[in-house]
Design goal:
The protein is an alpha/beta fold. The protein contains 13 helices and 14 strands. The strands form 4 sheets. It has a 6-stranded mixed β-sheet, covered by helices on one side. A 4-stranded parallel β-sheet has the order 1-2-3-8. It has a two-stranded antiparallel ribbon with strand order 4-5. Helix 13 links the parallel strand 11 and strand 12. About 0% of the residues have low confidence.
Length: about 325
């Protein structure tokens, strides 16, 4: 058990001593500090939720700095799962993928190319599915329309990007415990939509209706396995650095791999299509479920081989090992 040495001042207003305590905490107690902050956030939210519910108000919370569940926990100590258990009614998923590609070089000092645009679109779609799996509460997409500081709006400046935001939100389906498909998003909120004229709202409703897909007709691509115990993943990342599951999935979609759905690791056995799994953080039960899967392609990625079966093909990418298991029956 790590304790603070006598040279560290626990109560101080001295900037140098405060920095010394911070540095020791980050070097030796980073995981414990993250978990402590996540508990404090949850306690704070519980007070807010209880008070607002007593006034018959709904409580929605916004995702922290547009981060996915793991990123919010690891970077800021915000655990969406704990906040959901506080009784919040829904979560708002702020999609900045579109505005990030729209802003000019003068605004962000970075040029956004076509490949980055595609990555933004797919990354936010994957994040949206992870949010739903982590919290199991309604998710509402905050769709950007305009900005009153930089004086732009999607309707006039980049109508196709605005349509892309709605499209990727509408086709984000995750797989539930019954093997069925469930929408990752239950509706939308429009950012800075005050004062929009009727013809703009008509265009929004038309676009929403066009992309309103209620049912999955066929499967393609891969279903990514969502790691449920990401505290363990955060602890490993703090100690060893390297890749974590979400980062690995982001890199794969950036390279063109079609990750079209997501499923909790405890529900692997209900997936009918192909599976993609970052196996380093999966528990033994999840690994056994993967090993039993038949009539599909399974891609295992990790720093070591954890599936007890012979792969059809194997690759090495830096320190990562990639195994492909083709269990499809020959016709």
């Amino acid at each position: 058990k790590t304790v603070f040495p006598d040279s560290i001042s626990l109560i101080t207003k001295n900037k140098k001593e405060h920095l010394q305590r911070y540095r020791f905490t980050m070097d030796n107690l980073r995981y414990e500090w993250t978990e402590f902050i996540s508990e404090r956030f949850a306690q704070f939210f519980k007070k807010i939720v209880d008070k607002l519910h007593s006034l018959n108000k709904l409580v929605y919370f916004n995702n922290a700095w547009t981060c996915s569940p793991f990123e919010a926990y690891y970077r800021y100590g915000v655990d969406y799962r704990k906040l959901a258990k506080c009784g919040v009614d829904a979560m708002v998923f702020e999609d900045t993928g579109g505005s990030g590609t729209l802003l000019s070089y003068e605004s962000l000092w970075v040029q956004v190319g076509e490949e980055r645009r595609k990555f933004n679109q797919m990354r936010f779609r994957l994040t949206q599915m992870a949010l739903k799996l982590a919290t199991d509460i309604p998710i509402y997409n905050m769709t950007t329309l305009q900005d009153n500081e930089e004086q732009w709006n999607f309707i006039d400046n980049d109508f196709n990007e605005y349509r892309s935001m709605i499209a990727r939100r509408s086709i984000a389906f995750l797989q539930n415990e019954k093997g069925g498909y469930e929408k990752g998003c239950q509706g939308s909120l429009y950012c800075l939509s005050d004062g929009l004229p009727k013809h703009v709202w008509d265009s929004i409703h038309q676009t929403e209706s066009f992309f309103n897909i209620e049912k999955v007709l066929d499967e393609y691509g891969f279903t990514a396995v969502y790691v449920e115990n990401f505290e363990k993943e955060a602890d490993k990342l703090i100690k060893d650095k390297g890749y974590y599951s979400e980062a690995c999935y982001y890199e794969l979609i950036k390279s063109g791999l079609p990750i079209t759905s997501m499923v909790k690791e405890s529900n692997i056995d209900v997936v009918k299509g192909n599976l993609l799994a970052f196996t380093d953080m999966l528990d033994e039960n999840s690994l056994q479920l993967l090993e039993k899967e038949q009539n599909k392609v399974i891609v295992e990625i990790g720093y070591k081989n954890r599936l007890n079966k012979k792969p059809t093909a194997s690759f090495v990418c830096g320190e990562l090992k990639i195994n492909v298991y083709n269990t499809q029956k020959e016709v």
